[in-house]
Amino acid sequence: MIVSHGLLLTALIKSLQNVALDDFRRDGLVPTASVTIVQTFDGKKFETLEWGVSGD
What we know:
- The protein is α+β, with helices and mostly antiparallel strands.
- Helices cover 20% and strands 21% of the residues.
- The protein has 1 helix and 2 strands.
- A two-stranded antiparallel ribbon has the order 1-2.
- A hairpin with a 7-residue loop joins strand 1 and strand 2.
- The longest helix is centred in the first third of the chain and has 11 residues.
- The model has no long low-confidence stretch (mean pLDDT 90).
């Protein structure tokens, strides 16, 4: 579990997925107070299962 601001979390997740820095905001930022789930089985390929889900 990692807890941080949306901009940093977005940058971290996108860098794990090898998204170019110029494109990491393309899908929007992870919203504040939301849950994002990223899964990996090999530590090399990361899949986003949930993006910015809030409890609302």
